[in-house]
Amino acid sequence: MTDAWQNPKPNDPRDALSNDEVLLKWKEIKDRLAALKEEELEFRKYVVTREFPKPEEGTNTKELGGGYKLKAVVKFNYRLPENDKVEAGLEKLSKLGNDGPFIADRLVSWTPNFLLTEYRQLQEDASKGSKFATDALAVIHEFLVITEAAPTVDIVEPKVKK
Q: What are phi and psi of 149, to 5 degrees?
């Protein structure tokens, strides 16, 4: 423990407050902060939607002028529902052909955790016209739940040339 946490600073104006007043003030500040965080998150989502009408998962960048850039990192949460539904979906997937059992084995680890790399490969294969990948994705979408994660936004200042 550092000295800063051991004793209040001498002559701190907050010392004049009662314990109840200190705790109420702290809670008031904490509640304001929570409200501001919520407001900031909603505004951040709005900024991303407004500035990137069709954002892609990953980093999206927009030139702002004067060397400034707006950078938004868009993320999604990939999760799986209860095991019964996942197991049924993987069983269907494994019956789709020669690659089915291999994809089903690699798609889900039994923590269960979704393995995005295998999913991305199927998306890429489907975009190239693979019937198996298209069928596999249709089955996967029966049990995969995708929700939007909170985006991050940052204004990047231009680099100063020396």
A: -90, 165
Query: Tokens standing for 28?
Result: 């008031």
From CA 145, how far away is CA 82, in angstroms rounded?
Answer: 11
Give yes or no for residue 17 having a pLDDT over 50. Answer: yes
| Gap between the Cα atoms of 131 and 100, Å rounded | 12
86 plus 128 within the same structural domain: yes
Q: What is the overall mean pLDDT for the chain?
A: 90
Q: Are residues 42 and 86 in the same domain?
A: no
Residue spans of alpha helices (H) in the chain: 19-51, 83-94, 100-107, 116-127, 131-140
Q: Which residue intervals of 52-99 are DSSP H helices? A: 83-94
Q: How far apart are the first and last CA of the chain?
A: 43
Q: What is the pLDDT of residues 30-74, one digit of tens each?
A: 999 999 999 999 999 999 999 999 999 999 999 999 999 999 999
Assigned domain for 74 exists: no
Q: What is the mean pLDDT of residues 125-144?
A: 96
Helix, strand, or coil (residue 118): helix
Q: What pTM value is reported for the model?
A: 0.63
Domain membership flag for residue 4: no
Structural domain containing residue 100: 81-143
Residue in 158, 159, 157, 154 with CA at minimum distance from that of residue 51:
154
